[in-house]
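Researcher: I've been going back and forth with a colleague about how CbtB-domain containing protein might be arranged in three dimensions. Neither of us has a model we trust, so I'd like an independent prediction. The organism is Rhodococcus ruber BKS 20-38, in case that matters for your notes. Sequence below.
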Amino acid sequence: MGSAALAAAITAVVLLAFVTLYLVGFDQGAVSRTGMFMHELMHDGRHLLGLPCH
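Model: Here is an independent structure prediction for CbtB-domain containing protein. You can compare it with whatever you and your colleague have in mind.
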């Protein structure tokens, strides 16, 4: 794997990690069309990570 491909892979992983952190930690259902679906789906994960949600 070349250095450019490695850099692209690392960038993709970091971006995916930030998106996941946003969805689990800060979303509060904003991206869900059905209200609090995303919040309820990620609720236990939020507690596991120590993020306050209520």
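Researcher: What would you highlight for our discussion?
Model: I'd start with this: Residues 3-26 form the longest helix (24 residues). After that, consider the following. The CA atoms of residues 1 and 7 lie 10 Å apart.
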